[in-house]
Amino acid sequence: MHGWLLVVLMTATLTLYRYRHEWPLYLLIPLGAYILLAVLIPRLRHTAPRIEIGRMDAGALFVAGLYALACSALFIGVCEAYHVNFIGFARQVPRWNPTLIVVVCFCGSLINSCLEELIWRGVVYGAFAAQFGVTVAILLQAVGFSFEHMFFIPVEWLGMCMAFIFGIVLGWLRYRSGGIGTAILAHWVMDLTLMGMVLALWF
Question: Where are the chain's structural domains?
């Protein structure tokens, strides 16, 4: 029930909410609504999936870093092959002090990674794994993750395909480590790659 509830809230926010392109509102609104409902409704409160950081040993960090770099390289390669242009994103970045912009992007990428991992590899994966098993949970959360990103890559179908592949990787990291810690780190590396491509145009 928890997984479907958060998926419905995410879908409603992305399709109906007029500020769906304004980060981090499109993440905070459904996550906040879910948390409120989970606190207020006893049945939800007592059945909420447990969210843990999981193993963060050297082996887990190495695997997470390796997969993150591989996904980042794939992302850059696909964007180059399909001539994806991020100039529109670069124009939205304020003309502040360059050092401040880098710090803001660095921290913003981490916040975004934490929020998305709480949603997809935290609540959604946890609920679906308990209901359907690990394999189905990895697939379902990756599908939801891909639909979330259809609005944010200039070529929509391409963005969804890349997000689906990355969602599978993050779901596997979640399963392997027993928590969302390594998935957050891998996601952060990927987001920093995207921000680097945008900032390269901004500078």
Answer: 53-202
- Rounded CA separation 165/142 (Å): 7
Token pair, residue 163, equals 């997000």
**How far is CA 143 from its chain centroid?**
12
The answer to whether 93 touches 199, Cβ cutoff 8 Å, is yes
**In what helix (H) or strand (E) does residue 197 lie, and over which residues does it extend?**
helix 181-202
- With tokens 């994966």, the residue in question is 125
Cβ burial of 90 (10 Å; 0-12, 13-18, 19+) is middle
CB atoms near residue 2 (< 10 Å):
20
**Taking every pair of C-alpha atoms in the chain, what is the biggest distance, in angstroms?**
51
The structure's pTM equals: 0.94
CA distance 143 to 141: 5
pLDDT one-digit tens code per residue, 3-29: 999 999 999 888 887 666 788 999 999
Q: Model confidence over 32-74: pLDDT tens digits?
A: 999 999 999 999 999 999 999 999 999 999 999 999 999 999 9
